[in-house]
Design goal:
With 136 residues, the chain is of the alpha/beta class. The chain contains 3 helices and 6 strands, in the order H-E-E-E-H-E-H-E-E.
Length: 136
């Protein structure tokens, strides 16, 4: 578990109950950045598929992106796909001091999560606050 709280991993598996609550509201059709083991949707893209390079047109997307240096690319992709007609719901760290937050996430609906998300298979809450960003 130590790896989940270090820079060795930038993947945080979405808690099933959090996903289920959002899925009840949005009815997701695509998970664009997951593994085969932790996908939340029938249609999904793994790192090998490179969801950043795929169209999300016509999809209702649940996005829990890798939380490392690439997150800005995922923020830009989510915003761009929304501009092209997709609905995109993002579970992201609440890093309101970053450029990508201001450039993209602030253009969507923001739902701050009270407390810290307890990501699947971890014993404690995340070491950072989280938010749900909705582009619809």
């Amino acid at each position: 578990m130590k790896v989940h709280y270090s820079s060795q991993s930038n993947e945080w598996e979405t808690p099933q109950d959090l996903f289920d609550d959002l899925d009840d509201e949005f009815h997701f059709t695509l998970d664009p950045c997951c593994t085969k083991e932790n996908t939340k949707c029938k249609k999904y893209y793994t790192a090998e598929d490179n969801g950043l390079s795929k169209s999300w047109a016509g999809e209702i997307v649940f996005m829990n992106p890798p939380y490392g240096r690439e997150i800005g690319k995922w923020a830009k992709k989510a915003y761009g796909e929304w501009q092209d007609g997709a609905t995109v719901v993002c579970l992201v760290p609440s890093r309101t001091d970053t450029a990508y937050w201001h450039d993209y996430f602030m253009k969507g609906e923001i739902r701050f999560i009270r407390g810290r998300v307890k990501f699947s298979n971890s014993k404690q809450g995340a070491p950072f606050p989280s938010a749900i960003i909705i582009f619809q």
